[in-house]
Each structure stands twice: as structure tokens, then as C-alpha cells.
Amino acid sequence: MPPTNNAAERQLRSVVLARKVSQCSKNERGATTYMRIKSVTETARLRGHDPVDVLMALRR
Asked: What top-level branch of life does the organism fall under (predicted)?
């Protein structure tokens, strides 16, 4: 186990930057929706799945 949490912090950096520059965080609903989609797509990517396929499967 690494002695620091740098890997997790690096993964969150893109989320924080996107939230700052996008308009989705102007209201609670947009911010929540963005974070849910980002969480699902990043988890799919880390597990080796296609994020689009996972999102489409959840839509059904």
C-alpha cells in the first residue's frame, strides 16, 4: 500500500476542474447529475468496461 493518497487525489483533480469551469455546478441538480455520471463512467473505466455501454445499460 502506498504511503500517500496521491493516486486518489489525481483522479479527483479532473472532476474538480470540470466542475469549476462548467455550468453544471450552478445548481444542486446539475452538480449531482454530473457527479453521478462521472462516478459511473470512471468506475467502468477502472474496471475495463466501456463507459458508454455501462451508461446505456443503466438507462434501460
From this structure: Bacteria
Spatial separation of the C-alpha atoms in residues 6 and 42, rounded to whole Å:
17
Three cell numbers written together for 9 = 487525489
Q: For residue 56, which of 33, 34, 32, 40 has the smallest C-alpha distance?
A: 40
The CA R_g of the chain, rounded to the nearest whole Å, is 13
Place of cell 467502468: 44
Q: Tell me the pLDDT tens digit for each residue of 34-55.
A: 888 888 998 999 899 999 999 9
Distance from first CA to last CA of the chain, Å, rounded? 38
Taking CA atoms, 33 is separated from 1, 24, 47, in Å, by 32, 8, 21
Note if the pTM is more than 0.70: no
How far apart, in whole angstroms, are the C-alpha atoms of residue 22 and residue 31?
Answer: 10
